[in-house]
Amino acid sequence: MSIPAHLLGRIFLAIPFLVFGILHLMGADQMAGMVPKWVPGGVFWVYFTGIAEIAAGGAFLTGKKVKLAGQLAALLVLVYVLTIHLPGMMGATDAAAGQMSMMALLKDLGLVGGALLASHSASE
To answer: Which terminus in the chain has less CB density within 10 A, N or C?
Structure first.
């Protein structure tokens, strides 16, 4: 029995979205501090993005609405890159904090790429 590569890719892409979404819901109060100060709503956005990540992960797992989920997930994570990780990297006060922000930025860029690839290869 052979599992198609595109199915494995969707499953592997779904895992971080599902886990990160659950972590957003479980640790919303702690994560609210990561929401940029100029964005009103704080903890609301943590819950909102957690639910969005779980929805994207579910779409990747089930194969339903993958095109839409991939495009929206890519946009969401690109917003993380531009509003959280890049400013964190540029404004880091020590090398370790800068490296952590850079790793998160690169990981999220990989998720953006994976989501866009899943969206592009979706048949719906």
So the answer is: N
pLDDT digits (tens, 9 = 90+) for 12-65: 999 999 999 999 999 999 998 888 888 888 899 999 999 999 999 999 999 999
- Between the alpha carbon of residue 18 and those of residues 23, 24, 50, the distances in Å are 9, 10, 9
Q: Is-contact 53 76, C-beta < 8 A?
A: yes
The C-alpha atoms of residue 75 and residue 27 are separated, in whole angstroms, by: 22
DSSP 28-78: HHHHGGGS-TTSTTTHHHHHHHHHHHHHHHHHHHHTSSHHHHHHHHHHHHH
Element (H, E) at 105: helix 95-121
The answer to whether the CB of 109 falls within 8 A of the CB of 81 is yes
pLDDT in tens, 55-109: 999 999 999 999 999 999 999 999 999 999 999 999 889 999 999 999 999 999 9
* Angstrom distance (rounded) from CA 31 to CA 24: 7
